[in-house]
């Protein structure tokens, strides 16, 4: 994957390496340099802050155990970050601008390019075999027996067309995957959107940030009245905490270990844990933390009776 990502044009973002995130043009400068919309840069900046664990750090140091605990133990995240291009001035770091360009590539790359990158990611570009797949699956199915893992690995290789030698090169891997999935299904599986389409529609109602040629948001309307307030969150947390509120947390994009961390931090007080989770969600989403969007999440979490709170 690194061989592919290192072909990205990085020079336009190099000039931003020393730019402070406290500057008013932090988001717009990165939007103009990468061709992303400001709303996309804003979302990715929030994700980047999660990775660094800081609101100030503009470089990520994945080799120095700088990731939050839950991510530092995730072998898939760690391996993915190994393939990101590094700063020439500081070879141990991934600048925020590079992070943006990689995310942009994930969104726009063709199916063939994504499958090529996936192949390189799996075994650093070397041919893959059942033994390598078994090692990978052990991290996914931690409770499964070795014999079961071995059986699944062999079936996987057979489905992809591995012959007597039991190994697949990149071309064979790509052809095998494309043969196993219908084109539309494969495209959906590999689809990556920085901002899902329905959220982008809502973003069009948010007033534009100034001084950005790539800002896609309209300047009309008063979106502030549609943003979720502290009062909304407190009411929802109080009422939803008595029910299966973790489903709402998952719908909002939080992972299981995120939820467990909020619960532990708040001494198993579900109402307090959910309130803090909602506050973090609002902070991360910024102008996208709308009442309309939270209503949809409540409906998807079987909490539709709480939507009147947001009227």
What's the CATH architecture of the largest domain? Orthogonal Bundle
Task: Provide the structure class.
Answer: mainly alpha
Q: Helicity level, as a percent range?
A: 55-70%
String of helices and strands: HHHHEHHEHHEHHEHHHHHHHH
What's the domain count?
3
Report the principal-axis shape. Answer: globular
Strand order of the largest sheet: 1-2
Number of strands: 4
Query: Which CATH C-level class of the largest domain is it?
Result: Mainly Alpha
> What's the alpha carbon Rg, rounded to whole Å?
22 Å
Task: Classify the fold: give the CATH topology of the largest domain.
Answer: Recoverin, domain 1
* Range of strand content: under 5%
**Uncertain stretches of 5 or more adjacent residues:** 208-214, 216-222
| Mean of pLDDT | 82
Distance between the termini: 47 Å
Tell me the number of helical segments per DSSP (H or I, 4 or more residues long).
18
> Major sheet: size, sense and barrel closure?
2 strands, antiparallel
Task: Please tell me about this protein's structure.
This protein is mainly alpha-helical and 311 residues long. The chain is 56% helix and 3% strand. It has helices spanning 2-5, 11-14, 26-34, 38-52, 69-72, 75-82, 96-108, 111-123, 130-140, 146-159, 170-180, 183-189, 197-203, 230-240, 246-251, 256-265, 270-285, 291-300, and strands at residues 59-60, 94-95, 128-129, 167-168. A two-stranded antiparallel ribbon has the order 1-2.
């Amino acid at each position: 994957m690194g061989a592919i990502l290192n072909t990205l044009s990085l020079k336009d973002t190099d000039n931003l390496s020393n730019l402070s995130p406290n500057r008013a043009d932090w988001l717009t400068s990165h939007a103009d340099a990468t061709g992303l919309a400001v709303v996309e840069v804003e979302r990715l900046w929030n994700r980047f802050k999660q990775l660094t664990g800081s609101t100030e750090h503009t470089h990520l140091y994945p080799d120095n155990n700088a990731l939050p605990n839950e991510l530092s133990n995730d072998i898939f995240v760690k391996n993915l970050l190994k393939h990101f291009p590094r700063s020439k001035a500081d070879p141990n770091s991934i600048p925020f601008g590079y992070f943006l360009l990689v995310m942009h590539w994930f969104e726009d790359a063709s199916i063939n390019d994504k499958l090529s990158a996936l192949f390189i990611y799996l075994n650093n570009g070397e041919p893959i075999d059942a033994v390598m797949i078994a090692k990978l699956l052990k991290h996914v199915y931690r409770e499964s027996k070795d014999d079961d893992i071995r059986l699944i690995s062999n079936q996987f290789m057979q489905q992809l067309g591995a012959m007597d030698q039991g190994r697949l090169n990149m071309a064979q891997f790509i052809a095998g995957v494309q043969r196993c999935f219908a084109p539309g299904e494969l495209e959906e599986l590999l689809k990556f959107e920085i901002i899902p389409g329905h959220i982008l529609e809502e973003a069009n109602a948010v007033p534009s940030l100034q001084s950005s040629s790539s800002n896609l948001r309209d300047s009309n309307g008063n979106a502030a009245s549609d943003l979720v307030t502290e009062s909304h969150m407190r009411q929802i947390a109080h009422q939803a905490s008595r029910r299966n509120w973790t489903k709402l947390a998952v719908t909002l994009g939080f992972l299981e270990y995120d939820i467990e961390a909020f619960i532990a931090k708040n001494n198993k007080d579900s109402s307090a844990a959910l309130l803090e989770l909602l506050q973090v969600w609002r902070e991360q989403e910024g102008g996208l933390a709308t009442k309309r969007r939270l209503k949809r999440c409540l409906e998807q979490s079987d909490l539709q009776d709480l939507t009147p709170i947001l009227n």
